[in-house]
Amino acid sequence: MLHVRARLYARLVAQKTRGLATAARDAQSFHIPVINFAKFRTANSDVERRQTANDIVTAFKQSGFIYLEGHGIPSTTVKTAFEKSAEFFRLSPETKDALAWEDPRSNRGYVKVGRERVTQSSDPAEIASLREKAPDFKETMEIGRDWDSVWQNQWPREPDVPIFKQTMLDFFQTCHELHTEVMCSIALGLDLKESFFDDKINEQCHNLRLLSYPSIKRSLLDGEGKARAGAHSDYGTLTLLFQDLVGGLEVRNPHTGEFLPATPIPGTIVVNVGDLLARWSNDVLRSTLHRVVAPPANINGNDVLTPARQSIAFFCNPNFSAEISCLPNCGKEAKYPPINTETYIVGRLAATYD
Q1: What angle (nearest 5°) sits at the alpha carbon of residue 306, between those of residues 302 and 312?
Q2: Which residues lie below 8 Å from residue 292, measured CB to CB, with a gap of 6+?
Q3: Beta strands in 45-199 (DSSP E)
Q4: CA-to-CA distance for 347 and 354, rounded, in angstroms?
Q5: pLDDT given for residue 307 in this prediction
Q6: So where are the chain's domains?
Q7: pLDDT at 98 over 70
Q8: pLDDT tens by residue, 268-280
């Protein structure tokens, strides 16, 4: 009997040791890979296309984030979008406030500094307390599909920001088309038909978010829980993030809890999995916490000003009419009950804003 117990104990110790070793490897190997999407978009063979799809899905399983190069969006297109975004945020507070965000079902319009507090909490009282103590230091402009018969975009007057509307509508469409291609690669990487998601994302229920992080005293971002944007995950399928070179985006290593910099790489788009895609995949694909903090600084002192930062996020969503339930090939038992896209997205937005 003693020999049996000894063998069982030795086996348990060995299993625990292997588990710790695996956890250590996972923690050390956590990184955001750079993936050349041109190998999928213009592949010379099905093998190359499949390999790129597998690389994307593997990264989304491990870290939930990738840098996408070879994405096909010209640098001039991105540059113009950033220029028009900057022009908008230079408008007077009164002009911007006239376009204020009003309703989570619309999710369109201008959001001034301090109005939003992104968080993982769903408790309105807790979110209100967080917003009071540590508001997000950013302002945004939210843009949706422009043909919606119920909810209208809030556009500045053409003389105030010439060709702003057309620039953003074109950029919205460009991002939707890239989203569709990346979702095709995910479907292929999950051994589904490439077209699996096509009729589930074609209504373009997305959100184009222009972001401006004003320059502020670094000391204002150093308190507990304070950030340019608090730790959160995104809500939809994917987020396409275009960032300038200032830096500040950090991604949480799920194995250690440590936040690691997602240093800007010129010419790439940061792409990450959102909560609904994680739920759709039964958590096979990972929706990872991230935040925006003060960028690295070489100067010490509480009164150092952080540089202003710009980014543009395209939050990709399934059709608002779509039911999100466990995908084929993603486990025998569903972890979550089916949920309607609009119900989920609007619920998260309603809790986030003041």
Answers
A1: 150
A2: 138, 213, 227, 228, 229, 248, 249, 250, 309
A3: 65-69, 109-111, 139-143
A4: 13
A5: 83
A6: 30-352
A7: yes
A8: 999 999 999 999 9
- 343 φψ region: left (φ > 0), alpha (ψ -120 to 50), beta (else): alpha
Sheet holding 249-252, edge to edge: 229-232, 290-292, 249-252, 259-261
pLDDT at res. 54: 98
Length of the chain: 354
CB 349 within 8 A of CB 142: no
Least confident of 198-202, 214-218, 219-223, 316-320: 219-223
One-letter identity of residue 50: R
Give the whole-angstrom CA distance, residue 94 versus residue 133.
25
Q: 337 phi and psi, to 5 degrees?
A: -70, 160
Apex CA 241: angle with CA 34 and CA 171, to 5°?
115
Among the listed residues 240, 231, 225, the one whose alpha carbon sits nearest the alpha carbon of residue 312 = 240
What per-residue confidence (pLDDT) applies to 127?
Answer: 44
In a 10 Å sphere around its CB, with 0-12 CB exposed, 13-18 middle and 19+ buried, how is residue 223 labelled?
A: exposed
Query: Which pLDDT score is estimated for 273?
Result: 98
Cβ distance 332 to 229 under 8 Å? no
Distance CA 184, CA 64 (A): 17
CB 275 within 8 A of CB 339: no
Q: Which CATH class is domain 30-352?
A: mainly beta
CB 87 within 8 A of CB 167: no
Decide the pairing of beta strands 323-324 and 290-292: unpaired
Tens of pLDDT along 111-154? 998 765 544 445 555 444 444 544 568 899 999 999 998 999 99
Alpha-carbon distances of 231 from 49, 108, 234, 293, 344, rounded to whole Å? 34, 23, 10, 9, 19
What is this structure's pTM? 0.85
